[in-house]
Design a protein that fits this description.
Blueprint: E1 2-7, H1 15-22, E2 30-33, E3 39-44, E4 53-58, E5 68-70, E6 78-85, E7 93-99, E8 103-110, E9 114-122, E10 130-137, E11 140-146, H2 156-159, E12 163-173, E13 176-179, E14 183-189, E15 192-196, E16 201-205, E17 217-221, E18 226-231, E19 236-241, H3 250-253, H4 258-262, E20 271-274, E21 280-283, E22 288-292, E23 298-303, E24 315-320, E25 323-328, E26 331-336, E27 342-347, E28 354-356, E29 364-369, E30 372-377, H5 390-405, H6 415-421, H7 426-439, H8 450-458, H9 460-478, H10 481-500, H11 506-518, H12 520-531, E31 533-535, E32 541-543, H13 547-554, H14 559-562, H15 570-581, H16 586-600, H17 615-624, H18 631-644, H19 647-660, H20 663-673, H21 678-694, H22 702-705, H23 715-724, H24 745-757, H25 761-765, H26 767-770, H27 789-794, H28 800-803, H29 806-814
Antiparallel strand pairs: 1-30, 2-3, 3-4, 4-5, 6-7, 7-8, 8-9, 10-11, 11-12, 12-13, 12-14, 15-16, 16-17, 17-18, 18-19, 20-21, 21-22, 22-23, 24-25, 25-26, 26-27, 28-29, 29-30, 31-32
Helix pairs in contact: 5-7, 9-10, 10-12, 11-12, 12-15, 15-17, 16-18, 17-18, 18-19, 19-20, 21-23
Protein name: HPS6 biogenesis of lysosomal organelles complex 2 subunit 3
Pfam families: HPS6, HPS6_C
Region (Disordered): 766-815
Length: 815
């Protein structure tokens, strides 16, 4: 970037006075130049005893009458200087000076004549109205005015909504200037600063406004008569068409969004202005520069250096083509609006500078300072200094985010530091390889270092995929309508496959959401291809995806990572595609995912996808979000509950079938899932026994239900359960009812006989002992020892009753 002085202040009429005003040390309230750059208007709000004034200076010492207006507080001051295009004379304009009390002076400059007043108009209709902000949108003036309440002691909360946003056409013709009918855009509103783009008007809440109303922006679309409410940092966007003047009330506009907006944080706005492409540029107190598009979405551009911004520190913003120029604390930043890349950073020797219009020169920036007008030119690079490809820029930007997340330092890591620091070599090496590969087809590239050649061979396949993807994107842009569908199908398949092979961060997930929303059918086919979903010979769904792909599918980001933009995880996206294109496969897909989870994570692991919400519940959540529900959805809910094989889900499905009175299916589910566990078998049987006690719908299936009775249930347990669930009748019980729906002992007799005849648990414990061949067991053989005679004499002889064996006693009895 080259800096040169275009002219000094002597080129202006009364240039010495302009230099004096700029050198006083008091910051001018506003410095604004005309569309042709030949006039500079300085709005000076001086402190007493100096008088505030509005002065116009002409470049090249153009002769003619001067424009100078001054006022003495508490007289009303000008709040807006607007340059309006004149339809009578091409490339001609007029200056509208709007004062606080609504008076509007329309001035015109003629060469050799100077400034002359065309007409004075009254913008506001009320005598007590006060204009706080004004802008020009097309051929209309849009302003925010204060309408003070009539009572002197009004409610403070009501006084906060005493402002009104109005619009009025300003018609310039040969007969003079005429104001059209005033139109109320929004009434009973808080104070707003109005900023106009060619097709929209941004309403930015004033700094002194209530905290409850400073959490969102309003965007007015005049052609559609539509308001967009947006809280950019929270990702909230809501649009509403105003069909009648009664709907233009501020509170009615927010009626359906108050609950959501109340939970958002107030907007962090230090400086705001409109870019040349129609977006709203916002600078936060932390130094972050963002742009809010007319549709309400926000995009981050750049972060200014120097830490938090003080309340009084001025920030100058101006866009020149695709370049955003920003001056902060004597430092000029030139940033590419599209990529957020810092093009140039220049430390200025001037204390205060002000941007001027550069008509027809988008590659140069002109600034006004105390010593003159300076021009910064940033010419386009020549062929021998080709700019870095977008892919190379993306490498450094991604490396910045990667290293910043893993850094313990609080200092901000930028692309320039990454390139010049020399600490991190990986992005530098990869950028060199990419430059070599991407330029070799366009012009002879420089030779690559030998140490990089091996890495180039490793990433050659990825480079070829990238180049083919970029070529396909070009084909989509240039294709006819009949070819777009086939190209989009291939493009979506490559994009989905690429994202499933990379980290599933917040940006990739948001991109996948947009792909599935824009190309649902192509995204469905791409998902089937990536997961390799197909039916085998038995009609069962199988998937041959790799474990890495399964982990991307099953990942469930945190709620704060997902945000409130309607973004859903990938598993929910795939389930929604199943419901739309192949609903019969959804239960089998959930069962497949559960099989993978059980083989990859231990049960109840918080790291696994089922550590937070089970997969079948996530699939049920997708089913619940459908707009229309029918019998097919009830069947799908049953299948999702049963395919999980979880006890609670199986019981929930059983109760749902009972509610639908599908008794045949109830019995089938009971027979199938009673085999999973004894505890689930007991719960299922007690549930069906309770239903059996209340009505006679299950009587045809009793021969299939009684075998499900658990072994630990006794006849007493069965009778207790039946008595607890008998229906309560208002009439006196009679022995023989004519209705024929009462429970009888004869219906329970087969179950009770089955339970009574079944061996008890204690009998089963001793069944082995009871079924032995001999009882009691035989006495083990004894060894008889003959003692010596001496020992026999010493030991006293026991009695016959104690020493005789049973066989001996029998011999005695026989004798």
């Amino acid at each position: 970037m080259k800096l040169r002085r275009v002219s000094d202040l002597s080129d202006f009429s009364r240039g010495h006075w302009l230099r004096e005003l700029l050198c006083r040390g008091e910051e001018p309230s506003r410095v604004q130049s005309s569309p042709d750059g030949q006039h500079v208007l300085l709005l000076q709000k001086s402190r007493p005893p100096a008088v505030p004034r509005l002065v116009a200076f002409q470049r090249h010492s153009i002769a003619g009458a001067d424009l100078e207006r001054s006022w003495q507080p508490p007289q009303p001051a000008p709040v807006g200087l607007l340059f309006l295009q004149s339809p009578v004379v091409p490339d001609s304009w007029v200056l509208a000076v709007v004062w606080e009390h609504g008076r509007t002076e329309v001035w015109h400059f003629v060469v050799a004549v100077g400034w002359h007043l065309l007409q004075t108009l009254e913008l506001c209709q009320g005598a007590r109205a006060r204009v706080v902000s004004v802008c020009s949108q097309g051929a209309s003036l849009v302003w925010c005015e204060e309408r003070p309440p009539l009572g002197a002691h009004s409610d403070v909360s009501k006084c906060a909504f005493r402002f009104c946003v109005c619009a009025r056409a300003l018609e310039l013709g040969e007969q003079g200037v005429r104001l059209g009918t005033a139109r109320i855009v929004l009434h009973n509103s808080p104070e707003y600063q109005v900023l106009a783009s060619p097709q929209h008007v941004f309403l930015v809440p004033a700094a002194a406004g209530f905290a409850t109303t400073s959490k969102f922006l309003l965007i007015w679309h005049p052609e559609k008569a539509e308001f967009t409410i947006t809280a950019p940092s929270a990702g909230f966007i809501h649009s509403k068409v105003l069909r009648s003047s009664s709907e233009s009330d501020f509170k009615k506009l927010l009626l359906g969004s108050v609950g959501l907006l109340s939970g958002f944080a107030p907007l962090d706005i230090h400086t705001s202005t409109v870019s040349n492409n129609g977006g709203l540029l916002l600078v936060s107190t932390k130094g972050s520069v963002n742009i809010v598009e007319p549709d309400g979405t926000q995009r981050h551009i750049f972060d200014l250096e120097g830490g938090p911004l003080a309340h009084g520190s001025p920030v100058q913003l101006k866009t020149f083509g695709s370049i955003l120029a920003c001056v902060l604390a004597g430092v000029l930043y030139l940033v590419d609006q599209n990529s957020g890349r810092l093009v140039e950073k220049e430390v200025l020797s001037m204390k205060e500078v002000h941007f001027l219009e550069s008509q027809g020169e988008e590659d140069s920036i002109q600034v006004l300072s105390q010593s003159g007008i300076y021009s910064f030119s940033f010419s386009k690079p020549e062929d021998n200094s080709r700019p870095e490809p977008c892919l190379v820029e993306m490498v450094f930007e991604e490396a910045c985010r990667y290293y910043q997340r893993r850094s313990l330092s609080s200092s901000k890591l930028t692309v320039e530091k990454l390139k010049k620091g020399g600490t991190f070599q990986a992005p530098v090496v990869l950028a060199a390889i990419l430059q070599h590969s991407l330029h070799q087809k366009q012009k002879p590239a420089q030779s690559l270092q030998d140490s990089y050649t091996k890495l180039l061979s490793t990433v050659s396949l990825e480079l070829q995929s990238y180049m083919s993807l970029e070529l396909l994107k070009t084909c989509v842009v240039c294709a006819t309508e009949s070819e777009v569908e086939s190209y989009c199908k291939e493009l979506v398949e490559q994009e989905v496959s690429r994202i499933l092979q990379s980290d599933m961060d917040k940006d990739n997930l948001a991109y996948l959401n947009s792909v599935f929303a824009s190309f649902p059918k192509a995204a469905w086919k791409a998902t089937r291809s990536c997961l390799q979903l197909q039916q085998n010979g038995d009609g069962l769904l199988v998937a041959r995806a790799t474990p890495e792909v399964w982990k991307k599918v099953l990942c469930q980001p945190q709620l704060e990572e997902v945000g409130q933009n309607g973004m859903v995880p990938l598993f929910e996206l795939i389930c929604a595609s199943f419901l739309r294109f192949k609903p019969k496969w959804l239960p089998s897909f959930v069962e497949l995912t559960q099989q993978y989870v059980s083989s990859s994570w231990s049960y109840g692991s918080k790291e696994g996808p089922e550590g937070r919400v089970p997969l079948y519940k996530r699939a049920l959540g997708v089913l619940a979000r459908k707009n229309k529900h029918g019998e097919a959805d009830e069947e799908m809910e049953l299948e999702l509950l049963l395919c999980s094989k979880r006890p609670k889900a199986v019981l929930q499905a059983l109760h749902l079938l009972i509610h639908l009175k599908r008794w045949q299916r109830v019995v089938e589910v009971a027979e199938k899932f009673s085999k999973l566990s004894p505890l689930l078998n007991k719960e299922i049987f007690i549930t069906l026994l309770a239903e059996f006690a209340q009505h006679r719908e299950l009587d045809p299936y009793l021969d299939r239900l009684w075998p499900l009775c658990p072994a630990e249930l006794t006849a007493s347990d069965i009778l207790t359960t039946v008595l607890q669930h008998l229906p309560h009748s208002q009439e006196e019980p009679v022995p023989f009812s004519s209705e024929g729906n009462q429970l009888t002992v004869g219906l329970l007799k087969p179950l009770l006989q089955r339970v009574v005849q079944r061996p008890s648990v204690q009998d089963e414990m001793y069944s082995d002992a009871l079924q032995s061949s001999t009882f009691p067991p035989p006495t083990p053989p004894r060894e008889h020892k003959i003692p010596s005679k001496a020992a026999a004499d010493d030991v006293p002889q026991p009695s016959m009753a104690r020493t005789s064996s049973p066989s001996a006693l029998l011999q005695d009895d026989s004798v």
